[in-house]
Amino acid sequence: MDATAILAIAIKISIFLVVLRFGLEASIADVLFVFRQPGLLIRSIVSIYVIVPAFAIFLVKVFSLNPVLEVALVGLSISPVPPILPNKALKKGGEKKYTFGLLAAISVLSLIIIPIEARIFNAIFNRETVFSETSVLITILVSVIVPFAIGMIIRHFAPAVSQHARLIGKIGMVILIVAFLPILIALLPAIWSLIGNGTILAIIAFTLVALTAGHLLGGPDPTDRLVLALATAARHPAIAIGLVTANVDGSEKKLAIAAILLYLLVSGIIIGPYLNWLGGHETKGGEVPNEA
């Protein structure tokens, strides 16, 4: 087994542990919260799956960007929220019921929405997208639904284990960072080659529009605005990479992955000031922000 395969396994294990932690902390009421709030559910879908893809189409149609970046932006725009979203949202004061409920709702609905949006993009750009519904299903199941469900089952039958949820999550995050860094370093030359011709500006604009959409559609509660803004700007990298690499030539697959990593880096820098700004406002009912 080569180093790349080992790193891939390490990343999968780390994400499993991180999401397992969330399952150990979540209740059935948390998971069903967004489904029981149709107005909030619709606003969340519009923010994540309407406004962001529409803006991606605008960027690709109006500006002359690197073709690989164009494919990456489109792939990112229809990828669901990442499995580690609750970690940052809860740490910054997001409510547990909306954070976990949104992760559950969007993950399940993605199985229906992503194929529909892929066909819409095919019609708009007059090309046939290589799309594997099975691959998306497996990725969502393995990275979100299965570990989340296992965590909830363990919480029900062995509640004492839930006391170690944060430790399990921290172990997962450490493994994720250790496994991710070599990949990032190896792809730095490819990432650097993408910079220029408006690439950074396009990513900044994409992130700002996503944050603004989530913030405005999150409603009057600042904690809901925070969660939806993060969920709209953050994207599931594994699904985005799967969608993008299936639609570029072999020689451009590495560049496509680099484009997605570049988005993760730049968007992370952009999201930081937003979180600091929102963190200066009171959370709902004057509550102290949750600690992750």
Structural class designation: mainly alpha
Shape: globular
What letter string, H or E per element, gives the SSE order?
Answer: HHHHHHHHHHHH
Spatial gap, N to C terminus: 35 Å
SS field, number of helical segments: 12
Rg: 18 Å
CATH topology: Na+/H+ antiporter like fold
CATH structural class: Mainly Alpha
Helical percentage: over 70%
Largest sheet geometry: none
Low-pLDDT parts are 282-292
Total count of strands: 0
Report the β-strand fraction as a percent range.
under 5%
Number of domains: 1
What does this structure look like?
There is one protein chain. The chain is mainly alpha-helical. It has one domain (3-175, 183-285): Na+/H+ antiporter like fold (Up-down Bundle), CATH 1.20.1530.20. Helix content is 76%, strand content 0%. It is built from twelve helices and no strands. The protein has helices at 3-25, 28-32, 38-62, 67-77, 85-91, 96-125, 133-157, 165-194, 199-217, 222-233, 237-245, 253-279. Helix 3 (38-62) packs across helix 10, helix 8 (165-194) crosses helix 12 (253-279) and helix 11 (237-245) runs antiparallel to helix 12 (253-279).
Descriptive keywords:
292 residues; mainly alpha; Na+/H+ antiporter like fold; disordered C terminus
Per-chain topology:
Blueprint: H1 3-25, H2 28-32, H3 38-62, H4 67-77, H5 85-91, H6 96-125, H7 133-157, H8 165-194, H9 199-217, H10 222-233, H11 237-245, H12 253-279
Helix pairs in contact: 1-7, 1-8, 3-4, 3-6, 3-9, 3-10, 4-11, 4-12, 5-6, 5-10, 6-7, 6-10, 8-12, 9-10, 9-12, 10-12, 11-12
Describe the structure concisely.
This protein is an all-alpha fold and 292 residues long.
